[in-house]
Prior knowledge:
Elements: E1 11-14, H1 29-39, E2 43-47, H2 52-59, E3 64-67, E4 72-77, E5 82-88, H3 95-109, E6 120-121, E7 127-130, H4 138-144, H5 149-152, H6 155-161, E8 165-170, E9 174-179, H7 184-194, E10 202-206, H8 216-219, E11 225-227, H9 234-237, H10 239-242
Parallel strand pairs: 1-2, 1-10, 2-3, 10-11
Antiparallel strand pairs: 3-4, 4-5, 6-7, 7-9, 8-9
The structure holds magnesium ion (MG).
Amino acid sequence: MNNFDYKKIRVVAMDLDGTLTQHKSPLTPENRAALDALGARYKLLMVGAGQVMRIFNQMKYPIDIIGNYGMQFGTYDAENNTQIMRRDVTLPCDRDDIDRRVSALRERYGYTQYRGENVEFHPSGCLTFPLLGTAALQEDKLAFDPDRKKRRAFYKEVCAAFPEYRVFVGGSSSFDMAPAPYDKYYALDLYCRENGLTHDQAVYIGDDYGLGGNDEAVYLSDFPYLTIDDYRDFPKVVKGLLDQ
Ligand SMILES: [Mg+2]
């Protein structure tokens, strides 16, 4: 939801890569300063696709972190400058069955040539379907699908083949999957329920709000949403929140 009442906002929730930082890069001084200003007025919350500790080590910022689309939740421990894990869900999966379904999609859409493994299985139960394989060269991955058209062309079919997962057009050349119901909407809704907040009290900021993006579920929901297309614009994007 793009129209919302700024005066109701208590929590500023946000994505990391592409929103606050360049992919896998540290915070810029400008964005750190913007977070400091927001933190003086609002509760800050990171809602990430990756693991809590990976996000914390990348950001090096005192913030509570939802990881793995809500499967993990960590709160900042100021005394030891680390995260205390409050939730850490792992779910089993039938690897042979997943392998078969991924192979069928490769056959059908012409991705039978790949380097390394067919599927990457994460300890949480999340999956990555890397179209070029788990050992693809970085340069090949970056050149593969910069406008995401190749993956969006059969995104719906991948979702249909994995109905028990939430599927995202992730990284440069893959589909990421989290076991349903975990996605950023579910995670943010759960956070609100656990903290006695209504949706109109939490604004979300994220760059990946298009078809299949990992912020899309929040974007299409009733949560207040601020879009961002370049992490360097973060201070500008949050200006309205600081002017209240
Ligand atoms: Mg992002």
